């Protein structure tokens, strides 16, 4: 009998944004908007101290403070990669005095931001279901021996599908989010960088369950307000031993920004090759 578990999406409905601080909004604009081709949110945080950059149905939040760096990499999906290569080439001179770099990998483009965050840029395809533009995953490096415990934490606390696999890059825990996103926690033998306060924002269908578990163990770092809470300590759910630090902004589906539509421009549009009616890009493949 077929059980159709592949149809289950679990309690975490979506990964909405990644928040990493940047010290320079001009360089952030050159990298995220001009180079990667994201779209600055035209409605919110349009000043000089913060920027929200739309990537399909997800965002990067980029407040101006000391730079933060995720120890690992972030996955990005684009309709195709040739125009991305062209855009990255155009910003090389603007970012030459930074850590910015890019190179072709086996089936992706590896990109480093001006402050050392790493990205893998993939072309849309079956591996990402119908995502044409977006953030399908974030991969964090974690100490040896904790991938299984992290899997147990998300299953127990968030009731979401998970799996641990072994591949050429080591042991990695996959935490499934919604239809086509995930968090990945890859074990590494090298020392993991100290946590610097970056965070992710997720939406959950069952809000009270995770809140009750974390509150009962003193793990809430910011209590409920505006239909959300925060925590940053991932623990063994049986012993409460700390295994990893990552701040989660956990939102209920009653949050006013749930499923807020994001404007996405087609970064291939220019004055020279302008095509009427094609200013926007569809974040989904047909």
Characterise the protein shown here.
The chain has one domain (9-252): 2,3-Dihydroxybiphenyl 1,2-Dioxygenase, domain 1 (Roll), CATH 3.10.180.10. Helix content is 14%, strand content 36%. The chain is built from 4 helices and 16 strands. Strands 2-3-4-1-13-16-15-14 form an 8-stranded mixed sheet, with helices on one face. An 8-stranded mixed sheet has the order 6-7-8-5-9-12-11-10, with helices on one face. A hairpin with a 3-residue loop joins strand 11 and strand 12. The longest helix has 12 residues, at 147-158. 40% of the residues are buried.
Can you tell me the CATH topology?
2,3-Dihydroxybiphenyl 1,2-Dioxygenase, domain 1
The CATH class, by name, is Alpha Beta
Number of separate structural domains: 1
Look at the structure and name the CATH superfamily: 2,3-Dihydroxybiphenyl 1,2-Dioxygenase, domain 1
Strand arrangement within the widest β-sheet reads 2-3-4-1-13-16-15-14
Based on Cα principal axes, name the global outline: globular
Main sheet makeup: 8 strands, mixed
Treating each run of at least 4 consecutive H or I residues as one helix, how many helices? 4
- On the 0 to 100 scale, the average pLDDT is 96
The SSE order reads EHEEEEHEEEEHEEEEHEEE
Helix content: 10-25%
User: CA-to-CA gap between the ends?
Assistant: 31 Å
Assembly context of the chains: single chain
Q: How many beta-strand segments? A: 16
Task: Describe what is shown at a glance.
The protein has helices spanning 25-35, 82-90, 147-158, 208-216; strands spanning 12-19, 39-40, 52-55, 58-61, 72-78, 101-104, 109-112, 118-123, 134-143, 162-167, 170-177, 181-188, 199-204, 220-225, 228-235, 242-252.
């Amino acid at each position: 009998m077929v059980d159709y578990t592949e149809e289950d999406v679990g309690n975490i409905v979506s990964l909405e944004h990644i928040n990493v601080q940047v010290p320079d909004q001009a360089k952030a604009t050159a990298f995220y908007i001009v180079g990667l081709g994201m779209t600055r949110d035209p409605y919110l945080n349009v000043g000089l101290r913060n920027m929200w950059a739309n990537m399909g149905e997800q965002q990067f939040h980029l407040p101006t403070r000391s730079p933060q760096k995720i120890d690992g990499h972030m996955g990005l999906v684009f309709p195709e990669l040739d125009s991305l290569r062209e855009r990255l080439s155009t910003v090389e001179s603007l970012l030459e005095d930074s850590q910015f770099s890019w190179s072709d990998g086996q089936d992706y483009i590896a990109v480093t931001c001006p402050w050392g965050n790493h990205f893998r840029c993939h072309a849309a395809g079956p591996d990402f279901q119908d995502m044409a533009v977006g953030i399908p995953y974030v991969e964090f490096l974690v100490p040896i021996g904790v991938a299984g415990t992290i899997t147990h934490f998300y299953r127990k606390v968030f009731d979401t599908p998970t799996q641990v696999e072994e591949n050429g890059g080591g042991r990695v825990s996959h935490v499934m989010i919604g239809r086509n996103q995930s968090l990945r926690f890859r074990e590494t033998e090298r020392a993991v960088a100290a946590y610097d306060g970056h965070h992710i924002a997720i939406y959950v269908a069952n809000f009270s369950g995770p809140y009750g578990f974390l509150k009962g163990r003193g793990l809430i770092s910011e209590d409920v307000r505006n239909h959300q809470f925060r925590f940053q300590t991932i623990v063994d759910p049986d012993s409460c031993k700390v295994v990893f630090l990552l701040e989660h902004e956990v939102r209920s589906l009653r949050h006013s920004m749930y499923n807020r539509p994001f404007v996405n421009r087609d970064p291939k549009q220019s004055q020279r090759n302008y095509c009427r009616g094609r200013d926007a890009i569809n974040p989904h493949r047909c």
